[in-house]
Amino acid sequence: MTAATLSVQELSWAPAKSADLVLHPTSFELDAGRVLGIVGPNGAGKTSLLRLLYRYHRPTVGTVQVDGQDIWSMPARAVAQRVAAVLQEQPSDFALTVGEIVALGRTPHRRGFVGAVGARDLDIINHALDQLDLHELADRHLGTLSGGERQRVMVARALAQEPKLLILDEPTNHLDIRHQLEVLELIRNLPLTIVTSLHDLNLAAGVCDNILLLHSGRPIGFGTPSDVLTEKSVAHAFQVNARREQLSHSGNEHLTFHLQT
Ligand SMILES: Nc1ncnc2c1ncn2[C@@H]1O[C@H](COP(=O)(O)OP(=O)(O)OP(=O)(O)O)[C@@H](O)[C@H]1O
Question: Which domain of life does the UniProt lineage start with (predicted)?
Answer without folding.
Answer: Bacteria
